[in-house]
Amino acid sequence: MRKRFGRNDIILISVIVIISVALLLIWKLVYLKGQDTDSDACVEVTIDGRAYGTYPLSKDDTIEIKNGDGDVTNTLVIKGGVADMTSADCPDHLCVKKKAISKEGESIICLPNKVVVTVKSDTKSDIDSISK
């Protein structure tokens, strides 16, 4: 004997799919609201915890990040509102393989060279998170 989907089974599956899609859309709207890059967004570059410089994402630029000896360790390219690490002299090149960043709080980290690039913005997000 073959069991077929009954009318109630189809209704149940449809309701589950609709609820899942609705929850996904609500999550995307709530989570991504305020996450877009603002015109005042900038990237902050630090080396070994010390500020190296702050650069606006609105202006295309190429920043050669140098260590204490004056040697270029990393190259950061800002183009089209995104920042991307294009070269590094570290052995693993994980920072170069990381995708370009443009949203508040995103970062590129080069551990061997102790370089951290983070997107900052003066605009406050409407979303607050509270942890208990």
UniProtKB/TrEMBL annotation:
The chain crosses the membrane at residues 12-32. Keywords: Membrane, Transmembrane, Transmembrane helix. This is NusG domain II-containing protein.
